[in-house]
């Protein structure tokens, strides 16, 4: 399920790009002049916050001053091209004032212009030396957000395509995971032991987590009140993956399994409203009801800034809801202050999508290394 992040996120980034402590002291955020050049510090904060919402990390330069439109091309071009979100393309640019910029910068501008992320100041003028304003950055970040939402969500890009060849039932075997590579294909065999026949397995997803590959597996038990012989049974799911998605061996696989009951387990649709970062807070889940909606806020405490959070899915089972939270730590070489930080994700759920009764929520953390 894709995460839906509203345009309010970008507005918040632009209108509240001071650190959380300052926002808390004032109690409100003053909207900046849209024609005023944005400082490099505020630019870095806004862009980095947007990128981490989609699973990317970026190390900005330590330069001072403002950001020019030429620098903006270089920064966005490198980020989006290097991550294969947009492809290099060649087309004639209409601008007559870009003769003095580098060839590689022109190539980046070509791509960004073609994608509709950056336009000129006028039909034939780009003005590469002018400073990026609050208003310009607001519009550009909104365009980048839309591009990431549909093309470059890294949380989803970690998913590995696969095909289940078959599931074999036998009375002999050994629980575990083995794989073989045959030319351009990798066959992964996952074997589970059960105390009786009648069980089934379903492979939901395979994704890369750090240097390993997680196999999300559902175990479907026999129907209740079914009389079955007490005979140990082994089920083996044989999965085919194109080797190009895994890279060079050896591969490390592990199983994240859950018992599924089709009458009870239900995936709940949700909308991610915004994500906040503060230096004061309390870890936990807060639930509120209003106008046919459920407002769900999940707060996690971290030892430093730089962590990213996202909600992968929400499941309902046995009268409880469980939110699966993806946590991505900062880059290993990042230099960060040792300040406790709280990140809160605000979600919205339609009551019509939920079961009647009390709304009891729990969570499960799924770590990811960016």
Integer count of domains: 3
Strand content: 25-35%
Separation of termini? 20 Å
Q: Can you give the mean pLDDT?
A: 81
Name the helicity range.
10-25%
Strand ordering within the main sheet: 1-6-3-2
Q: Regions with pLDDT < 50 over 5+ consecutive residues? A: 1-29
The value of Rg in angstroms is 25 Å
- Overall geometry comes to globular
Query: Counting H and I runs of at least 4 residues, what is the number of helices?
Result: 7
**Count of β-strands:** 15
Largest sheet: 4 strands, antiparallel
Structural class: alpha+beta
Give the H and E element order.
HHHHHHHEEEEEEEEEEEEEEE
Brief write-up:
The protein is α+β, with helices and mostly antiparallel strands. The chain contains seven helices and 15 strands.
What are the main properties of this structure?
globular; single chain; 3 domains; disordered N terminus; four-stranded mixed sheet; 370 residues; four-stranded antiparallel sheet
Overview of this protein structure:
The protein is of the alpha+beta class and about 375 residues long. The protein has 3 domains: about 10-155, no CATH class; about 165-260, no CATH class; about 265-365, no CATH class. Helices cover about 20% and strands about 35% of the residues. It has 7 helices and 15 strands. The chain has a 4-stranded antiparallel sheet with strand order 1-6-3-2, with no helix packed on it. A hairpin with a 2-residue loop joins strand 10 (about 285-290) and strand 11 (about 295-300). The longest helix is centred in the middle third of the chain and has 18 residues, at about 135-150. The protein is globular, with a radius of gyration of 25 Å.
């Amino acid at each position: 399920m894709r995460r839906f992040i509203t345009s309010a996120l970008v507005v918040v980034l632009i209108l509240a790009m001071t650190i959380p402590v300052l926002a808390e002291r004032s109690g409100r955020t003053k909207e900046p002049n849209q024609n005023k050049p944005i400082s490099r510090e505020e630019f870095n904060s806004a862009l980095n916050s947007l990128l981490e919402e989609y699973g990317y990390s970026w190390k900005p330069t330590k330069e001072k001053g403002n950001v020019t439109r030429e620098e903006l091309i270089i920064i966005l071009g490198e980020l989006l091209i290097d991550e294969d979100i947009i492809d290099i393309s060649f087309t004639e640019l209409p601008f007559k004032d870009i003769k003095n910029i580098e060839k590689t910068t022109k190539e980046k501008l070509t791509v960004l212009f073609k994608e509709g992320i950056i336009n000129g100041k006028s039909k034939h003028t780009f003005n590469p030396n002018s400073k990026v304003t609050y208003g310009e950055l607001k519009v550009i970040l909104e365009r980048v957000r839309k591009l990431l939402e549909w093309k470059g969500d890294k949380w989803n890009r970690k998913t590995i395509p696969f095909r289940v060849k078959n599931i074999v039932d036998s009375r002999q075997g050994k629980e575990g995971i083995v794989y073989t590579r045959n030319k351009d294909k990798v066959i992964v065999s996952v074997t589970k032991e059960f105390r009786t026949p009648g069980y089934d397995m379903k492979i939901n997803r395979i994704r890369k987590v750090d240097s390993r590959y997680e196999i999300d597996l559902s175990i479907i038990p026999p129907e209740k009140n079914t009389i079955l012989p007490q005979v140990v049974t082994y089920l083996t799911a044989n999965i085919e993956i194109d080797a190009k998605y895994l890279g060079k061996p050896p591969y490390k696989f592990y199983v994240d399994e859950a018992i599924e009951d089709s009458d009870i387990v239900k995936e709940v649709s949700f909308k991610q409203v915004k994500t906040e970062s503060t230096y004061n807070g309390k870890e936990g889940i807060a639930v509120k009801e209003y106008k046919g909606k459920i407002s769900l806020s999940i707060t996690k405490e971290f030892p430093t800034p730089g962590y990213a959070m996202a909600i992968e899915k929400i499941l309902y089972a046995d009268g409880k809801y469980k939110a699966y939270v993806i946590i991505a730590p900062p880059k290993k070489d990042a230099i960060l202050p040792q300040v406790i930080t709280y990140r809160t994700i605000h979600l919205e759920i339609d009551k019509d999508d939920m079961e009647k009764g009390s709304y009891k929520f729990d969570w499960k953390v799924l770590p990811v290394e960016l």
